[in-house]
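To: structure subgroup
Subject: Chain for Friday's discussion

All,

I'm putting the inputs and outputs inline so they're searchable in the archive.
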Amino acid sequence: MVASAAMVWLVNDKVQEILVDEVVSSLQEKIALLSPTGHHAFALELAPAATDEIQNTIRSFAEGSHARITLIRADGVVVAESHADPQRLENHWERPEVQGALLNNFATNQRHSRTLSEDMLYVAKALRSGDRVEGVVRVGVPVRRLNERLDSVARLVVAAGIVGVLIALLTGFILARRVTVPIREMVGAADALQRGDYSARVKSLPGDELGRLGETLNRLGEELTGRIATISQERAQLKAMLAGLVEGIIAVDDDNRVMFCNRAAISLLRSPFDDVAGKSLRDLVSGYSGISGGSVGMRDILPLVTRARLQMELVQEELVVGEGEQAHCLETKATPFKGDQTSGVIVMVHDVTGLRRLERIRQDFVANVSHELKTPLTSIKGYVETLLAGALDDRAIAIRFLEKIDRNVTRLVNLVQDILSLARIENQEELIKPAPVDIFSLVRSVLSRHEDDFVQKKLTLRAEIGHAGFAVFGDREALVQVMDNLVSNAVKYTPAGGHVTVSLKRVGTQGRIEVTDTGIGIPREDLDRIFERFYRVDKARSRELGGTGLGLSIVKHLVAGMNGRVGVESEVGVGSRFWVELDLVHQA
């Protein structure tokens, strides 16, 4: 619009200039036509007043050209005038156009005419006779007529400018809309991608550079969608894997804020918070105030993280969380990491309580085996040395010593057999193949073999096994060994005059065997350990009765191999009840 307005102004100004030049040229042509007439026809009459012939000639010429024609002598007296009586006109010697013509032979001037009371454009030319100026012929036209022509041209130019502006605006609007609509869609699609809406696409795709840009943005959105989907899937899988690990995983940033923490870590460290993501380790430590047993874990994680960050290497330490029987031994490892946009420390927490317990059991096992082997061997060596020193000559002493040597050898044989049997069971060298077993006949067979033991110790046997038969899934030889151990223990640890009861019953889908005695009983604190190898409640009494300390451990492994369960209930001075449960065989 500004350019069009400037163009209209320039064109109007130029047209006005051209029009004025055209009028001036036209007037000059009229003067050129008048000059010969004035020079030849009334050159001599310039001195006296104008004649009627000259006046009529001037008026007739003016009527045809719509111009005002004035003939002026060199002294300024008007000789002839086309639009007024020359006798009544004042001297024109001072008129600017007359003065210009007298000085320069030709002059142009635009001014207000007092005679006609309107603005006029005059062109004057000097009339010469040789070198002498005889007068001036002046031709003028009203500026009003010139302005009318100028206004007409200006209106045409302005109208053309307005039409041009409208066409330009319409063309610009169409072109701008063609450009802005795809750009707005591209901006909207880019904003949607930034917000995470990766399904946003540009629909208006013109066939130019903007269209290619839109296609590129759409391809970018598709690629982002694919990559984000892949990253999200991998992240979900990684998160699921980390969440499902039995090891605790904690990731903290440089500000010690928890970035990730799986359920295992919360459980192992006894955290009072269900969700610790985004919380500071210091806040978590202060959150343990008043919580018993769990404060040690998180309090030791913070210095561990600090050490790993300062040393920029793997730092590991074992922590003990809880107290007494609830204590857990945790192995912690802190590893610093540094990525493109974030860095921090990853802490892995592994519960090694079972491992440490197994190490302790192994150490106890080695110590117990050494002790169990050393004791009878020492006794045997002592008796042999005594016999060799001369006691062999005394038959009574020699027989007594040999009987003791025999008992110790028998004890060693039983111990080695039990150790080998337990080793084979643990190593699965003795494969247990569960099959239907008639439990009634098996129990009767075992009890019949121990009848002499009951008689010798004066014990009462009660067999509550009924008469209706049912079968369980198990290995017959393994079940015989289990029953032998349970019945033997009941006989050994029940004083004379006591009772031993063996019962069979159905418990849901399980067949249950119970061996109950009225023996010395087992303290409550020892109930959880009696199935461990070489564990004895009363070591001296057990050795005195010939026990190896491996019987119940063998029972536990054999029952587990048959997919069964074993347990015990006991009270000191009242007696004990051992039970074994195996799957029933459902008969059609």
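Points worth raising on Friday:
The first strand starts at residue 68 and ends at 73.
Confidence is low (pLDDT under 50) at residues 37-45, 288-295.

D.
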